[in-house]
Amino acid sequence: MLSPKEKAQIRGVLEEEQKRLVKKSENALSYSMNHERNIGRDSIDESMEEEIFSTEMRLHDREKFLLGKINKQLRRLDADEIDVCEDCSESISFRRLVARPVTTLCIDCKEQSEREEQATEQAGRAGGFGDLNEGSESEAKLPAEE
Ligand SMILES: [Zn+2]
Questions:
Q1: How far is the CA of 123 from the centre of ligand 1 (A)?
Q2: What's 4-128's CATH class?
Q3: Which of 17, 61, 83, 133 is at a distance of 20 to 30 A from 41, taking alpha carbons?
Q4: pLDDT value at position 20?
Q5: Which residues have CB atoms below 5 A from the ion given as ligand 1?
Q6: What residue ranges do the domains of the chain occupy?
Q7: Helices marked H in 79-106
Q8: Rounded distance, CA 58 to CA 140, Å?
């Protein structure tokens, strides 16, 4: 069980991340609007611009997904269960929650699910979304579309 002080700290981390993501989404949105205005301008390398645009949109999808995870964690925090592993109901350590505020699994279950995910990927089946922010940022799973 986390102390009120620990919970406040995790809430702070989550809310800060939430604000950052909302801001990034807004930037992506204003970029897309500028983009529409710029269509037809012939002085820009259009293929380059298309590339930037699609990258922005993919970031936007990822932000929406992460925001969903953060909202879920804030609900778990309110319900006093943010430190309860979704799989085995063991407690998740405060240190782990601060380092990985969107995690809903204890380290044992996380390692287990990563092994299963790898096995799933090797079998060539799409495994759905894993736990984002568990590894490096570049590992974020995005809908494959080119
Ligand atoms: Zn667990």
A1: 25
A2: mainly alpha
A3: 61
A4: 93
A5: 85, 87-88, 90, 106, 109
A6: 4-128
A7: 94-99
A8: 11
